[in-house]
Design goal:
With 183 residues, the chain is mostly helical. It has one domain. The protein is built from six helices and no strands. The termini are far apart. The model has no long low-confidence stretch (mean pLDDT 81).
């Protein structure tokens, strides 16, 4: 039985990742690496979408608490938690490799590496000279880097999710208590 997250990722990836045979050709390795890259990109997109939803929810919490001049402790705590959740969501959206990540040689896949070549013909020449094994190695480097970014995104998203739940509880406790006091 799949968890909800596994099911969502399964749907994003368009189904299961095809498992390779034991003895793959270089072309098979490249196709398999591409499917892994796409699978992890699906995780990144999934997390970005969820963070954008939390960003909207917390913006509403923050706007509604600010409108009432933060008149109670639950409301102040809710506003603080919503602010924290918004900050975490921004970390999800803007997640990058840590600054300490080692610089690698220019490969043929990543857009910034492609742009390190001065001319289009330089890229074409590099592309025509590369072997399938080298392209696969470049792809595996990109997959590893992407997995680190996705990991950072998920950690920030989990913090944002918890802060949103707590902000919602603070917001509800303030409004329910205020509604009970008014009635």
């Amino acid at each position: 039985m799949m968890t909800q997250r596994e099911l969502a990722v399964y749907k994003l990836a368009g189904g299961p990742i095809p498992m390779p045979e034991r003895d793959m050709t270089p072309a098979d390795q490249l196709r398999f690496a591409m499917s892994i890259l796409q699978y992890n990109q699906g995780f990144a997109q999934f997390t970005d979408g969820k963070a954008n939803t939390l960003l909207l929810i917390n913006s509403i919490f923050l706007a509604s608490t600010a409108a009432s001049n933060l008149s109670s402790w639950p409301e102040m705590i809710a506003a603080g938690l919503a602010s924290f959740a918004i900050t975490c969501c921004l970390f999800v959206v803007y997640a990058r490799l840590p600054p300490s990540a080692p610089l690698r040689r220019a490969d043929l896949i990543f857009f910034r590496h492609i742009q390190q070549r001065r001319h289009r013909d330089d890229y074409r020449a590099d592309f025509q000279a590369v072997t399938a094994e080298e392209v696969t190695a470049h792809m595996l480097d990109q997959i590893y880097d992407l997995s680190r970014v996705v990991n950072r995104k998920f950690r920030s998203y989990q913090h944002a999710q918890l802060a949103t739940i707590l902000a919602a509880l603070g917001w509800l406790s303030h409004h329910l208590a205020g509604g009970l006091l008014l009635s």
